[in-house]
Amino acid sequence: MKPINHSEQRSISSRFRPSVNIHGMLATTLILLLSACATSSPAKKENSKIPFFGSMAVERFTLPNGLKLIVLEDASSPTFAYQTWFRVGSRDENVGYTGLAHLFEHMMFKGTKNLPEGQLDRVLEQAGAEGENAFTSRDYTAYVQELPKDKLDLIVKLESDRMVNLIVNEKSFKTEREVVQNERRFRNENSPDGLMYQEIFGVAFNTHSYRWPVIGYEADLARMSAKDAEEFYRSYYAPNHATVVVVGDVKSADVLAAVTKAYGKLEAKATPEKKIPAEPPQTAPRHKTMKLNTQVEKIMVAYPVPEVTHADIPALEVMRTVLAGGKSSRLSRALVDGGITTSIDTFDLDDKDPSILIFIANMQRGKRAANAERILLREIESFKNTLVSPAELERAKNSLQAAFYDSLSSPSGRANFIGHFETVATGLETGVNLFSKIGNVTAAEIQTVARKYLKPDARSVVTGVQK
Amino acid sequence: MMNLNRITRFSIGLIALTANVSQAIETRFEADTSLPMVYLNVAVKAGAAHDPLTQSGIGNFVGEMMLRGTKNRTKAQIDATLDLLGATLNVETRSEAIIFRGRVLATKLPQYMEIVEDIITNPNFPENEIKKLKSEIISDIVESRGKDARLGKVFWDEFLFEGHPYGKPILGKTPALAKLKRADLIRHYEALFQDRNLLVVGSGSADSASIENWANRIARNRPDSPGENPIQIVSAPVPSLKRRVLFVNKPERTQTQVYFGQVGVRLTDPSFFPMHIANHVFGGGSFSARLMTEVRVKRGWSYGAYSYFRHGIQPRSWQAYTFPATKDTPETIKLVDGMLQDWKVNGLKPEEFDFAKSGLINSAGFAYNTPAKRVENILLEKTLRLPDGFMKTYADRMSGVTRAQSNAAVKDFLDPERMSVMVLGTAKDLKPKIATSLKVPENEIRVVPFSKE
Question: What is the ipTM of this complex?
Answer without folding.
Answer: 0.91
